[in-house]
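Bug #77: duplicate submission created two jobs. Keeping one. Sequence:
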Amino acid sequence: MFESIRHLDSARTALRAERAATARRLIDLGHYARERMVELGNTHEDWVVDDWEMVAVEVAAELGIGRKRASTEMAHGQTLIERLPRLAEVFLAGDLEYGHFTAIAARTALITDPDLLAVVDERLAAQVPGWAARSRDKVAELVDWLVLDVDPDAVWV
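Kept job's structure:
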């Protein structure tokens, strides 16, 4: 029995570390994208491939992933840095699933008022650790209710 519990404890620790590593990767990619975009200075805006796509290709090549995934992860990193910094702390602590984060990011994307977004971010940071066992759809529903309460104009229809 005690041997089994040790394995379960190890698995729980590994899961939290995996979540934290995912958050760290996304945030690092968000910073990298932001810095590279400044370096490139929007010099390719009239090209078929703009600066963002060039950076996504760099990331994809470096990480051995597809360009679309690289672009998505860069955008998610920027969301954590710029829009949901308190939620980023929860993610870095290992208390948020990546799938739940993607639902949260999508469901809060229509909030444009920075003050209202900060309220949503604070509430999410407080509530999300208790949502680990919930489905992605249930998390999306909970976020919709939270957004409805704070910024009714920003609810997905």
